[in-house]
Amino acid sequence: MTDKIALTPATHTVPPAKFSHGVKKGNLLQVAGQVGFLPHEEGKAPTPAGPTLREQTLQTLANVKAILEEGGASWDDVLMIRVYLTDVDHFAEMNDIYNAYFGEQGLTQPPAARTTVYVGLPAGLLIEIDALAALG
Amino acid sequence: MTDKIALTPATHTVPPAKFSHGVKKGNLLQVAGQVGFLPHEEGKAPTPAGPTLREQTLQTLANVKAILEEGGASWDDVLMIRVYLTDVDHFAEMNDIYNAYFGEQGLTQPPAARTTVYVGLPAGLLIEIDALAALG
Amino acid sequence: MTDKIALTPATHTVPPAKFSHGVKKGNLLQVAGQVGFLPHEEGKAPTPAGPTLREQTLQTLANVKAILEEGGASWDDVLMIRVYLTDVDHFAEMNDIYNAYFGEQGLTQPPAARTTVYVGLPAGLLIEIDALAALG
């Protein structure tokens, strides 16, 4: 039986429930829904990078990337990115931030597929992102 | 060609459309969105386990598990659990129920990754859950 | 390393951001969230097939299918279909359309699993669908 490995970057806050920030099994890597929390500081509650969509989007992408890297993967391995926004009016700005971010990631493969939908999130959070990757 | 196998536990209501409660193909097993319906009784419309988040969450998890088991899988094989709630105020209670439930499942592998978002669901339903598993 | 291949049917509008309409890597094929846009016409903005749920659902399914076929896959290979509606009252009608559509697709395998949730979408769009397939 192939082991399922939990991916827990040192920068991450402890999950608020019995789930893993990411798991890897065989060639599949699943990143749990990430939000824009800053790197964990001992004894401090999870804190968003800032109130703006830009701050939260960039931090969220950094948090997803940290989990990919913890599993030996990169953005190039990602098949699907799910973006959850709270406000349809944020779509264009999120795309600008998203495009600039991935323009700087040095991708050598085509970008991942993506679905963006508009949902409710806990107060203060504007974006959540998860990702599915296939390595190798 | 590897067959895709429909997973239809005897306890489940007939899907209201042309979809499968779960499918397995090769080592992948996908569980469709489950809600808190009680085991199917002939001639009776689908009925939620109860009006409370606790009743519906536990029944929903049981419904997901039945599909996993129909496909020869267990919670240990699950990579990703998607939780859809209708109310942000249910997050803490859902986590308590979720943690207690998985604490009793005898997991031998790290817990699955998870994304929780807040959406609309049909009247009377407070939670929906789907899952992706990789066997072997 | 297995290449990740972008799937871009000629009929599709250019994605509004750095994502692919579909990607294929090894035996996995992920279709990005599709909406009911008509086939792309040079110099024309993306235009929904019509204002009704029926028009948009059928065009959305056609758009998903075009990406599957671009990757050498068919509906038979699809494990999971995610349906995002904007209105709970559309569930029954969407199911009728969905059932009739898949009744005509000549499936030789069980239908895919499915999750349907109700979210916000950009103005004028009533449905979004994505899909995960495993080939071979």
Automatic annotation (TrEMBL), chains A, B, C:
It comes from Streptomyces olivaceus. Gene3D superfamilies: RutC-like. It comes from the Bacteria. This is RidA family protein. SUPFAM superfamilies: YjgF-like (SSF55298). Pfam families: Ribonuc_L-PSP (PF01042).
